[in-house]
Design brief:
332 residues, alpha/beta, Spore Coat Polysaccharide Biosynthesis Protein SpsA, Chain A, 2 domains, 10 strands
Length: 332
Amino acid sequence: MSTLPRNIKTPGILFPALSVVIPVFNERENVQLLYGAVRDVLEKLRRPYEIIFVDDGSRDGTRNVLRGLAEQDKRLKVVFFRRNFGQSAAMAAGFRMSRGERVITMDGDMQNDPQDIPALLSKMDDGYDVVSGWRKHRKDKFVLRKVPSKIANRLICSLTDVRLHDTGCSLKAFRREIVDRIRLYGELHRFLPALARVEGARIAEVEVKHHPRQFGKSKYNLSRTFRVLMDLSSLNLFLKYLNNPLRYFGKIGLWCFGLALLGSGWILWKTVREAMVFLGVNVIATLVFLLWAMGFQFIFMGLVASLIVRTGTRKGGASGLVFLNQHEGRRS
């Protein structure tokens, strides 16, 4: 194993120009049709490519179909999860397996149209690092999908300052250097443009087609709303205080100190004025003690978080390096 910058040409290793990452979960009827459609589009582009399906613990026979396809086409890679870990984990695994200079992501339900891939790549040629699809005429149920999606788009755009019409569209194109720096967990696959903006990416949007689902059942429902909101809150914190988390924890600590000072002053004033200790002082004194303790704790947490950030930045200074297997040409 060796550590090499990606722009160094290694003899005998050929990297594809394009990687298409497709997470799937119980999509037996769709995967073969989708594979054929994606392959046909990529063949017309006349560029080296690879297609990566990530099976997120399917139990309906999707795995068998993917195994059969992989045996027929060496450009098709398949990653199997032992159980369902979620789309973010599947997307992260696909990113890790991909080797292309440009990475395209899309859903496995045949609602994204592979014919839109050239449009995304063409827009990227204008100098953009991320190109996101916009399902302007979305073919989904109004109450269960369209309304929550519009609300989520408004929230995400207002909190992350990424101005897109459709942040939830899975059809996107990324440059390699952006993919290598993004870390996915929870439900953060919904916020890929915001995560890319943290890395300084130039982001554009292209109108794409959207088709109604023909086979299988949708995996999205309102039960995911709470998880999305929690991840959005953590993402907002990440975007605003990434470089100096002490500012965030310090603000909370200062508020605790302020309240503790007010409580201490009130106890002192009551004690001096009434020249006696009364029952209320014990309660307030306990609260004041807790506020002082909380203030110091938040300051300490901020210092630790800042130390982690600075240490990670120093160790990750060679972020332009990737691990390559010189014999097989695979990213480790």
